[in-house]
Amino acid sequence: LHTLYRLTGLLRAVLRPAADRVPLAEELGIVEAYLDIERARFEERLAVTVEADAAARAARVPPLLVQPLVE
Fold first, then answer.
1. How many CB atoms lie within 10 A of CB 15?
2. Contact 62, 18 (CB under 8 A)
3. Contact 35/70 with Cβ under 8 angstroms?
């Protein structure tokens, strides 16, 4: 059930109207949702660490900039 909620959140984020720039923290939230889904599939075979300090998380980036890199 948790995975289904994460998928729903991911789809909402991807389908929202595109903004010019969004905070990196928001992008990392989308990536975390995607990784949660992948963890459900791959279990202990997938281990990912995301490190970004507060200044980096506040930076504004183009929407869906990070997602293709993670995939």
1. 8
2. no
3. yes
Exposure of 43 in the CB half-sphere (CA atoms within 13 A): 0
Per-residue pLDDT of the chain (71 residues; tens, 9 = 90+): 788 888 887 787 777 777 789 999 999 998 998 998 899 899 989 999 999 999 999 999 998 899 889 98
- DSSP assignment of 3-71 equals HHHHHHHHHHHHHSPPPS-EEHHHHHHHHHHHHHHHHHHHGGG--------HHHHHSEE-TTSSHHHH-
Backbone torsions φ then ψ of 40, nearest 5 degrees: -65, -35
Amino acid at 33: A
How many other C-beta atoms are found inside a 10 Å radius of the C-beta of residue 6?
19
